[in-house]
Queue: 2 jobs
Job 1
Amino acid sequence: MVSTGVGELDQLLKEGYPDKSAILVVGPPGIGKEALGYWFTQAGLSQGDFCLYVTRLAVSEIIQDVKAFGAEIKGPTMWFAREGGQTKVDINDLPGLSFSIKETLKVNGERPIRVVTDILSSLLMLNSSETIYRFLSQLLSETKQYNAVILATLEDGMHQPQVLAAMEQLFDGVLELRLYEEGLRVHPLLRIRKMRGMSPQPGYYNFAFTHRKMEITPYAK
Amino acid sequence: MLSDTSTVSIIVSLVVGALFSYSAYWALTIRKVLMSYLYRRQALWVGGVATYFVAQSAFVASAIFYNATGFYVNLLAAAFIAVGTAATFVWIDSTVLVARRSDPLQRDTLHWSKLRYFIGITQAVGNFFNILFNVIFASSSGSSYQLLGYPPLLGYIGTILLLGAVALLVSARRSGDLTLRRHLKWFGLGAGLLWVTGQLGSPWAKVGGDSILLPIITYSLFAIAAYCFYRSAKSLVPLGRLSVADFAKASEVAPSISTS
């Protein structure tokens, strides 16, 4: 198992994400799903894992966001980014992106690998869902040949529900962060929609971000 | 003793104020649970614009109830226009930045990163002179239309804001974010209706005489605009509802987790 970087989430998932797995974090924009990627990267760097961060933003924007969550990405991270990374991301060039990721993983394949990406929603906006389904299906199966765990974020409310459902099929685990309305209150709730090696989890959990950590508590009405 | 028209105006102002308060409540409640700075700022200013209309409704109701006129009322009315346009600009700015973040190609629509400073500064200057001219003309003529502000300057401020609205629409189109589009649809509808109510309050709309129908139509549209603002606040993010079955399942599983 691979630590998520969040103690309470590790407990919830029985020690972390499964080895050689692909995890999807689904949630509306602004809810903080990227923070799961930041803590996942931070935990990997502290253990000496190879960390690859593939983002549609500039590295400086990510670093600013990381600080806002009280996390740190200290250490030799490989960045594929719009600006400021070792490799420039061109989300219009799917074959090029796939090749660069696979080559990078091949070179660093002797260590445990963590890949975090936020480009999925952008790819779905620029291409047909069928194209992205095929692209992702191939990429995920090839990267799983290495000792890699991939964590991808996907925006809820930006795509049609059937597109989201199709994407979820490709992943071994799906974490859902959503806002639920109850009377005059809004609850941020987390749900494990599926996770390889775990029985279905119908429970909801409250979550909140405090400085330097994410707090998860059982949700009771 | 208040006339029928004044009584209707006061009642509808209070209803509209209540609707805008509800919009502000939802926008600020959603802001509390969001984490990303850009989205929190957008929710804050949706709440800010709604709060502004609460204050404006209270001001209009009070002005009618106390039959308030004179220098300070005109000054306050001009200040309200300045605050309203400033709040609208900040909301436009925050929403354009959100739209840019969700644009897969991160395009800087109409060079918004520079244009925002031009719009911000020029509308601030326009508002300053609007207040100044309003005070000067109100003191010299005592005419009540100055409550609307100095017309040429209002046209100028409106044009500046329109430029922001164009940037916003182009950004939203580029972003492809369905939630943002839903939010903009409701906000745009509300803003459009407010513009229509503004036109109904202008001198040319009163050529038919002081019929009670005009304030009723005006305030009905104002109430519909307030409802649109409420819908725009609720559509800032997708909000789910848990069914009774979901709660039952959750309570079966939840106690198994301990937190440290």
Job 2
Amino acid sequence: MRFGVVVFPGTWSDCDFHYVISEVLHQPVQYVWHRERELAPFDCVVLPGGFSYGDYLRAGAVAGRSPVVEALGDFVARGGLVLGSCNGFQILCEAGLLPGVLTRNECLQYRCQSTHLVVENVETPFTRGLRPGQILTMPISHGEGKYYADPETLARLKQQNLVVFRYAAADGSVTRASNPNGSLDNIAGIVNPEGTVLGMMPHPERASETAMGGTDGLLMFQSLLGSLVEDGSFLKR
Amino acid sequence: MTGAEPKVTLDLALDAGLTAPEYDRILTRLGREPTYAELGLFSALWSEHCAYKHSRVFLARLPQSGPHVLQGPGENAGAIDIGDGWAVVFKIESHNHPSFIEPFQGAATGVGGILRDIFTMGARPIALLDSLRFGELDTPKTRHLVNGVVSGISWYGNCFGCPTVGGEIAFAPEYAGNPLVNVMCVGLVRADQIFRARADGPGNPVFYVGNKTGRDGIHGATMASATFDEHAEERRPTVQVGDPFTEKLLLEACLEVMRTGAVVGIQDMGAAGLACCTSEMPARSATGMDVELSRVPQRETGMTPYEILLSESQERMLLVAARGREEDVRRVFAKWELDAVEIGRVTAESQLTARLNGDVVAHVPVDLLAEAPKYSRPTAEPAALAELRAFDPLTLPEPGDYGAALVELLASPTIASKEWAFRQYDQQVGVNTLVLPGSDAAVLRVKGTSRALAVSTDGNGRLVFLDPRQGAAMAVCEAARNVSCSGGEPRGVTDCLNFGSPERPEILWQFAEAVEGIALACRALDVPVVGGNVSFYNETNGQAILPTPVIGVVGVLDDASRRATQWFQGAGHRVALLGPTNVSLGGSEYLWTRHRRLAGRLAPLDLEIERRVQGAVRAAVSAGLASATHDCSEGGIAVTLAEGCVTGRELIGCTAALPGDARADLTLFGEGPSRVLVAVEAGRVRGFEALMAESAIPWRWIGTTGGERLVVTVGGKTVVDVDVSRLEGAWRHGFERRVA
């Protein structure tokens, strides 16, 4: 599977995704500069964490209008997969590729901590190898991760089963205490209706090696690889 | 400051922080009166902050070389060889004065400054550690400072993308008017690709790269070289304003342009800005520089030569390129959307020539600027010290309830969990952090090798106050011991020496004694000092801080998988205490927290025992014999045991028997050097005992992990018997409850 990792000015999880994809998963991976529009060489494009363009104006707002993100629309229409983590999720929302918005954490402080996620939707290429209700452990690191959507959008997300991850307690119960940033309905990650664009605040690339404290992030990547069929197309929903 | 520039007189020179003899020296060497811009150059470059004029004679005592040293003091940062072709570049620096005036930006730009010191050497920063000291948390002002400093560090480090993996936060009333913000950065570079701050090759172009120049931070270096009074807030305009996004771009652009081979030398524009770079770089290379100030990218209009030279605007570098490679420099910086403007040339004549629209505004020998006068001022032991040391803490009443006394100590802000601060810092970006903040030392892997780095900072101002020589030596020992506990072999030291005014004999005595103590410990442990920073004038209204040398140690683990952390890993592990039995309540956290006394003598330090204890701990960790290791320092053995019980993922009780017939508070809470707690799984007890026998150190089994309580007997009598969840609650919330 061919991965492209997008680099905006101010991106910092690019090297970490690149490392995990090449050194842990042994898959081909290239950096994609933010001025690029050519995404055809890739099966999956990763929008990593960081502070793209300094997150000036709003987190992800400037990056959401950059050349590479403008090219994502066509890439997705042709069946390409997009994983946006942290700042990448913020960018996908700002670009309108996913609904809703990430706002300042409820505590008004940055939060770097381990979180538990309960898997709500396993019918995506990113989660196909997981069990419904499975509990994953992954760190977050952000100041603006409080997911918000208007009531109609939230109802649609629920009705179409587009919420992929919720913040949960260690036993999987979705509680206020287990919500690290005040996200609506404890939402940690969502997909588009086709299941091909996933946005999530946690960092799977930081949970892909035993030495780093856990490998639950790797389960997502392995789902992705397992979703690729021989002709190079993806198993869709 | 626009318009006609004032005429330079002795009075003006005195206002600028120079002394009358210094001004005379300038007149003699120049053979004329300096211009206003030249006066500014001397004012900044001859400030204590830039020139170390009161400290140099003492700092020469420190061991600065060794087989692993690739770069010692005198550059932007020191560098140590760690094997496999890699070098680690590291340094600690203070940003105390700005952080008191404006805590958020002061701390943020402290982070920015030390990051640049590392990547200007060609290294990618991989870790930050913050050593912070504040007054006690009972005033709104201190809580404001803590919140501001922590959020400033969080903002800058997180946005830049370098993890904050360690450091300490301690509290004492002496820091109320002068908090300390010391930031250490560690970077990685190929050992043969280190860049230096040189201006070799007359005719080579001089590039200004990075952020634009504004009026912020003018006189920052001078401000950091004076004490505060009640008008400190009026100096707010001397504090710089940071932009971590631009710094991140500058990092990537600098590392990229270095790979092109076009770079001859490069230096961060930190304290004293352009003035510092244009004099220090040629001074190192016995060359000169001729620069045109009107070409300097500016974000304000009408800036004078004085302002352009002395601005401390952030995120800027001065770069000397190889002649003919100008386009490589321009192309890389254009890619990262940063300014890269050729502002002048390296010259053969050793003069700094600064022009404005062609007219010379400064023309000064670079060696005169770079070599400030050195002073050897009188020192004198403070008169009250002998009496303070003679105090016997055992004349104070014994606690009625030792369990309650332990709970109280665990909740003291200096000892309690600092999670409130650390959860605001990104700790993992770079995916290198194997041991997160919260253990004795942070451990970071070196990708592509089997190795890891262990890093720790330490420095206990109370101990140094009572005995500067031994207290400072103990700071070196403690930082190195923390590294050893994690399994790392200490390889190098960086020191940040925070003191009051060196113009007072008793402060300079503290300084001289402390430097001697650091030198003794570094020699005994065989770790050279490769860089650091002196911060004097930490005084407000004549009240100096506790003398606080903060020591950063970097160590190497040859096998990253053979490491240890401070928390107990399970029940049924035997617990050993390594090191001498001699302890004292003098200067202890217990004596301050419970009795509000800062007095007494320190337990003696034997550097040979220290060296052997650290060697034994490292051997136990690398042989896989230790399931947990924990340095025994603030709060004594009782706090160390409690931390073993409560700081891990699960709570684990412990039963310990301490021998002796001393009063229980001395045994439980007394502090002494060279002590380490080690937990050993039942199956490895024999191997551990054999190793200890070889190590020739004092040690004994003191207990066993398990259960839900911490039970400690002293001389056979049970003195502590507390539920670990109660200990955990006190430790977890003690700091957060007071600060939030």
